[in-house]
Amino acid sequence: MVIAIKEDSDIPIYLQIRNQIVQGIAQGKLLPGEHLPPVRALAEEIGINFMTVNKAYQLLKQEGYLISDRRKGARIREEFPLAGGLSAETFELLKQIVSEAQLRGVSAGEFCELCTKMYEEPGTVPRTK
Amino acid sequence: MVIAIKEDSDIPIYLQIRNQIVQGIAQGKLLPGEHLPPVRALAEEIGINFMTVNKAYQLLKQEGYLISDRRKGARIREEFPLAGGLSAETFELLKQIVSEAQLRGVSAGEFCELCTKMYEEPGTVPRTK
DNA sequence: TGTTTTGTACTACTTATTTTAATACAGATA
DNA sequence: TATCTGTATTAAAATAAGTAGTACAAAACA
């Protein structure tokens, strides 16, 4: 999977990496058990320090998406915890997003339709209704 | 409306204020045209510097939620722009949340149900399904 | 054995952010 | 006039965040 970094984004590089990997797993681009590139290789590919990639991997590992493998690099976890709900942080974030959507005139139905499309056809969801 | 600041939160104070006001508007706790407390009064109530409150008000004003009223303090805007869609930033954030929900075993149906409840009965939505 | 590759711990540097502070000012109000 | 509003300005301090450099241990392999 290709990691594309936006240099001018206000999202830090290590988070861009982390987010793209999470989305990659959710979208099936990264399969359970699959090896990620070594921190140094990915860093060189992107053109950054390998500790920045390491920070992303550390975060993913801490969140349960990755397991460390000193032999062949980091691996996507085989069995996900399936926490059965959102984390407290994500839950609060979602409440905030719903409030803002509501105030911008997005109906509950439209919002759900948008989310459903994100579930089903990730990558092809247009932003404007 | 009462603004409750979590001192140990990793979200900065001015953002906590801003977020709670946005949610307050969405939930009908703050009505269009309603006056917010003066920056100095709210600051003293919370126990912070009034410029921190001012920063929150500035942000809300910039986002179109508030209008300045030099006579009796800031006021909730009467007519919202109804931007007709999410901002690009919020859209990306939502994509991220959907991915994470998906990986945690939350189905599209469950996710939509949760969002719908957030729309309809804000404040009473439990985090655990 | 030696070499290479892996992740990681530790440290450091730089930059950005957040919060507080002290004033000052202009418009509105009583 | 006196007092209330928001706001502009500037500064300072503290904290946090991001990125990077070096060194090291475990594993793999020729």
Set out the fold topology.
2 copies of one chain form a homodimer.
Chain A (H helix, E strand, L loop, with lengths): L12 H14 L12 H8 L3 H13 L3 E2 L7 E2 L11 H16 L4 H13 L9
The first copy, chain A, binds a DNA duplex (30 and 30 nucleotides) through α3.
Shape descriptor of chain A reads globular
CATH level 4 superfamily of the largest domain in chain A: Winged helix-like DNA-binding domain superfamily/Winged helix DNA-binding domain
**Cα gyration radius of chain A (Å):** 17 Å
Relative helix content of chain A? 40-55%
Spell the H/E element sequence of chain A. HHHEEHH
The name CATH uses for the topology of the largest domain in chain A is: Arc Repressor Mutant, subunit A
CATH architecture type of the largest domain in chain A: Orthogonal Bundle
The whole-number mean of residue pLDDT values of chain A reads 89
The percent range for strand residues of chain A is: under 5%
- Label the structural class of chain A: mainly alpha
Oligomer: homodimer
The tally of domains of chain A stands at 2
The largest inter-chain interface, given as chain pair and residues per side, is: A-B, 46 and 46 residues
What's the CATH first level of the largest domain in chain A?
Answer: Mainly Alpha
The helix tally of chain A amounts to 5
